[in-house]
User: What shape does this take?
Amino acid sequence: MIRNFFVIFFVLLSLISFSQIKDIGGVDYTSMINGSSDADFSRSRVWIAIPLKLKKENHVIVSGISYANIHLDFNTLFDFDVSPLSTIHSLEYTLGYTFLLKNKDWRFTAQLSPTLSSNLESGVKFDDLLWSGGILFIKTKNEPKKSRLTLGLVYSQRAGIPAPIPFATYFKQVNNNFTYTIGVPISKMKYYFNKRTSLESFVTFDGYYANLSNPIQVNDKTAEHISMSAIITGLGFDKYYGKRFNAFIKFGYTLNNSLKLVENRRDDIYDFDMDKTFTFRGGFKFNF
Assistant: This one.
């Protein structure tokens, strides 16, 4: 269930980011290290998105690509070979379309994201390709203070749920220094010291899902995929330099941390021992 939810979360998060069309590229690094767990996790990611305004007013197409290199350091000996699990590659292409509806209050956003996610031990295979996509309707009000209601549906082959999944979030600017977001898939509160510096508290999800090029035999069963998920709460700090550059760091703690081997996309066959631990994420983004 948690695996399904964090996959849906990432699809929705990319949709939300796309619908705002603000960030056009970035680099970040994430780390979860706990020597008492079976494995430590780290991820390096780079991404870029190119918006293209169409002739029709308020209609925009966005094309983007991101690459993530995920690494696991195992701290325990197992009865099976874990070396094929140490490095995962994820290459995602995103094509999205967004426009304001006729009443100008609502924005419609649609996105399709084919993703190559695998350890690539035997080159690229058809099973390495995963599909996701969704739609959002976003209503924004700017008076007297800015607020935003987001409603949507998402579908992901990775989630193993053959039906659209609904979600809803509400953003509110209380005053010039304080905003909050409540709902699913993310909740947070943010305090602005000034226009360039902010501090936030958050509850969010992280993880990945990938194909194994060569299945692994585990206790007379066949592991075909690997899945990691974590529920994280913490604090984040953002700093803008000029109008285009944003640096950020986030420190958190995992409320739940799971690493599993999966058969037939949804049947868990091995659950690694992953303790709760501290997390770090840092990087920078470019805006336009």
